[in-house]
Write a structure and sequence with these properties.
Blueprint lengths: L1 H16 L6 H18 L3 H8 L7 H8 L4 H13 L8 E2 L5 E3 L2 E6 L2 E7 L16 E5 L2 E2 H7 L9 H13 E3 L13 E7 L5 E7 L1 E3 L34 H6 L1 E3 L27 E5 L8 E7 L2 E7 L8 H18 L2 E5 L5 E3 H9 L6 E2 L2 E4 L3 H16 L4 H19 L16 E2 L15 E6 L6 H11 L4 E4 L7 E7 L7 E15 L7 E3 L9 E2 L5 H5 L3 H17 L2
Parallel strand pairs: 14-15, 15-20, 20-21, 21-25
Antiparallel strand pairs: 1-23, 2-7, 2-10, 3-4, 5-6, 5-8, 8-9, 11-16, 12-13, 13-14, 17-19, 18-23, 22-23, 23-24
């Protein structure tokens, strides 16, 4: 214990001493560099102006705020707020820090209020902290919990307002310095937490912050320093065996949250469904989900006189896309032969490979369908990258389909750049056409699932998990059930965000488009998925206290009831 306390004191002292390493000139240079990247690479510039009246290139007010900062952490807070103004799930300013402070429990919004939904009983033993799941968080350190949601909105700038509020709720008790620069302020402190118990009693607890990792220190950094070039990271390497000429396409085919576990959201990207503990009372027989080699959670419900199939897609970034698709095909073949209808669950799915998502859609849609389109930002280095890959693909004897893809995208970006356009028309990225033919087996039989289908979506169906229900809905293939998807309708990567501060900026490099324009909520009439998301045919919010306390049983009952009614309607 003495060693731990001493370590915390030394860490705190180190942070205080090194809090002002960046000079005013370095901070201004890095902020200008950050803004210049959005000028060059960011695809939704005009869309964000239209939706939020925010011009990411109008930086003078931000430079004034930078000039007023007295510490490095204050400067980082300005960078965080600047990028958060885009309300873009894929875009954030993050720091190279592994420091995290935790209170030992998590909260989320159920019926519009902050309820505790998980506890770590190792750090919060019940004898000292008897509050439990379903109790309400009222305040932390004298700050009303709902006001804390407003305070922390800047650290949760997702495209869907509901998702953003829920992510802000997670930030109250789990504070990673990578996205919350001043998270280290809690070192050595306790939080005064006021909780409303379900009995009606109001109780106050002093809870020590549990910290891990090392607080950020970036300097001192001498000037001048050669700026680093933007460093894209390849994402969707199919099985890690793709040839070099595929790099540009694979980078362009990624849309997802890179570290879903860091959000603090329960069930985000997990194999098991949210209502897994309610399955035992729902006459469910599991098929997949119990082995390490399982990419999906699947099985069948015996519901009255019906057999209803179920498969959960936890993410669109499996460790092996080939193995995952093979496993998915086996499940579809079984469901075609043995079920009356199918429920496909992609709630709390963090996205991943757009083309893997399109391949999943092709195994669910038995007709021709329009794939997700992509409008790319045609900056010059990307044009050259696609041109070089086109030439290299031809030289390497790549499949003609790959060569055709590169030629098509290269010429479209070159034409847009030449004509002074900031974005291309809608393009295919997974094949050379936006029209996908039905998937056939060797005998010419349509392989996809052919019976009634329902897809479960919510505000954390993200990125590729926005794209897939968009294709499903545009093909009139299934009833979408749940809540509007996240609206993370771009293709993204990370870029170095400054030579001195060592920050990283998420960047949306392309926009996803649907088959037709749509009008939902207060959003403009558009074919874009960014911010607007994909809306359900039947709305049902999982985030209720009843679902929290009953492990999702009410939600599951509703799903099965509606699925059964749909099957019987079309028999």
């Amino acid at each position: 214990m003495k060693t731990l306390i001493l370590s915390l004191i030394l860490i705190s002292a180190s942070s205080a001493v090194q809090a002002q390493n960046l000079t005013p000139a370095q901070k201004e240079a890095d902020f200008r560099y950050l803004a210049s990247m959005y000028s060059t690479y960011y695809a939704p510039i005009d869309w964000k102006k239209q939706l939020f009246n925010f011009d990411v290139l109008a930086i003078q007010p931000w430079l004034d705020r930078v000039a007023q900062t007295n510490t490095d952490l204050d400067f980082y807070e300005v960078c965080v707020a600047y990028v958060a103004s885009l309300h873009d799930t894929h875009d954030s300013f993050s720091l190279p820090s592994d420091f995290v402070a935790r209170l030992g429990f998590t909260t989320d919004l159920y019926d519009g209020v902050l309820l505790i939904d998980s506890l770590n009983r190792t750090t919060l033993p019940v004898k000292d902290y008897p509050f439990t799941t379903g109790d309400r968080l009222l305040s932390v350190d004298g700050r009303d919990a709902l006001l804390l949601l407003q305070d922390f909105a800047v650290y949760a700038p997702w495209g869907n307002p509901s998702a953003a509020k829920r992510l802000a709720a997670a930030r109250i008790t789990i504070r990673p310095q990578s996205v919350m620069p001043h998270a280290t302020d809690v070192i050595g402190k306790t939080a005064t937490v006021v909780i409303l118990r379900q009995s009606g009693a109001t109780e106050t607890y002093n809870i020590p912050w549990t910290v891990s990792g090392t607080p950020l220190s970036v300097g001192p950094v001498p000037s001048p320093k050669i700026a680093r070039s933007p460093g894209k990271t390849a994402r969707a390497q199919y099985d890690g065996t793709a040839p070099d000429y595929m790099t540009e396409l694979l980078n362009a085919q990624w849309s997802g949250v890179l570290n879903p576990e860091e959000t603090g959201l329960n069930g985000f990207g997990t194999l098991s469904p949210l209502f897994v503990n309610a399955l035992a009372n729902a006459r469910f027989t599991r098929r997949l989900g119990g082995a390490s080699a399982d990419f999906f959670y699947s099985g069948t419900f015996a519901y009255e006189d019906l057999t209803i199939g179920y498969i959960r897609i936890p993410s669109y970034s499996p460790t092996s896309t080939t193995a995952a698709l093979t496993q998915f095909e086996k499940e579809i073949a079984f469901f075609n032969a043995n079920t009356d209808g199918l429920i496909v669950d992609e709630m709390r799915n963090p996205g991943g490979s757009l083309c893997y998502g399109e391949d999943i859609a092709a195994r669910l849609i038995p007709d021709y369908f329009r794939a997700t389109g992509f409008r790319l930002r045609p900056y010059w280095s990307r044009i050259l990258g696609f041109y070089s890959s086109w030439i290299n693909a031809k030289a390497a004897g790549a499949p003609q389909s790959v060569i055709d893809q590169y030629e098509q995208v290269f010429k479209a970006m070159l034409a847009a750049n030449t004509q002074g356009q900031t974005i291309t028309d809608s393009l295919p990225l997974c094949t050379s056409s936006l029209t996908r033919a039905p998937l056939m087996d060797r005998d010419g039989n349509v392989f996809a699932y052919k019976k009634q289908m329902m897809m479960l979506i919510d505000e954390f169906s993200t990125s590729t998990a926005d794209s897939v229900p968009g294709m499903i809905r545009d093909a009139n293939r299934a009833v979408l059930y749940g809540m509007r998807t996240n609206g993370a309708g771009g293709n993204n990567t990370n870029l170095d965000a400054g030579s001195y501060s060592e920050g990283v900026a998420g960047m949306t490099l392309a926009l996803q488009t649907r088959k037709d324009k749509h009008l939902n909520g207060d959003y403009p009439y558009t074919d874009l998925i960014e911010n607007t998301g994909v809306w359900p045919d039947l709305t049902d919010d999982y985030m209720t206290k009843d679902n929290l306390l009953q492990n999702g049983a009410p939600f599951l009952r509703n799903v099965l009831q509606h699925m059964a009614a749909q099957i019987r309607m079309f028999r």
